[in-house]
Amino acid sequence: MSFMTRALAQTAPLCKTIRGMPFNRGLADGSLPRAAFQHYIIQDAHYLEGFARALALAAGRAPDGQAVCQLAASAAGTLQAERELHAHYMGLFGVDQDQFAATRPSPACDHYTSFLIATAATRSTAESVAAVLPCFWVYRDVGRDIHARATPDNPYRAWIETYVSDSFDAAVEQTCALAERLHDAATDPTRDSMYALYARSTLLEWGFWDSAWAMREWPNPTLTGEIA
Ligand SMILES: Cc1ncc(CO)c(N)n1
């Protein structure tokens, strides 16, 4: 059985839950509160930096030139395209550079990026790719689901369209293909670990949206504000 077939079967209930989350329903019908999206877009900019670091680390440790090239291009290319989207949205939703600089990564964001970076630094490339794959796959899945329901005058339209674009689709397919190739060459224990990491990362995607919807900060900002 292919890696994706099994990984998707294992995470199907969680993906269904993610599609139904209030944050994503609000994106689809345009009713998502502006403050929740502002919170999200700041956290996602922090997230993308960590995500790119994980991809770049995995690139440096990859077993062959093709994987090095693909992961390094993914770190640069996906991030570049998404940064433009974030700049657009930060302008549109009134988030300035000072506000961004003053907002530290939330616990959910820090958890997710720390997990990706630790995996890329200490595990095999097969495992690292399994861990970053839900970042691609889940966003395309959610993007498609929302796109099918989105109203034409939706204020979050540019965000939704990014994740149903041909270029994002190509990035998802390429990363899936790399995961399959590394899975085919992996030992059974590494394969087991790939499935566990894929599922963990999907759960952390859920946690990221859950945190954005609640606009969750550190539990005691007065204690952690200076150091978090
Ligand atoms: C949290 C999160 N996961 C995945 C993506 C898509 O790359 C994103 N922008 N943010």
UniProtKB/TrEMBL annotation:
The keyword Repeat does not apply. It catalyses: thiamine + H2O = 5-(2-hydroxyethyl)-4-methylthiazole + 4-amino-5-hydroxymethyl-2-methylpyrimidine + H(+); 4-amino-5-aminomethyl-2-methylpyrimidine + H2O = 4-amino-5-hydroxymethyl-2-methylpyrimidine + NH4(+). Pathway: Cofactor biosynthesis; thiamine diphosphate biosynthesis. It comes from the Bacteria. Its EC number is 3.5.99.2. The keyword DNA damage does not apply. It holds the Pfam family TENA_THI-4. Catalyzes an amino-pyrimidine hydrolysis reaction at the C5' of the pyrimidine moiety of thiamine compounds, a reaction that is part of a thiamine salvage pathway. Belongs to the TenA family. This is Aminopyrimidine aminohydrolase.
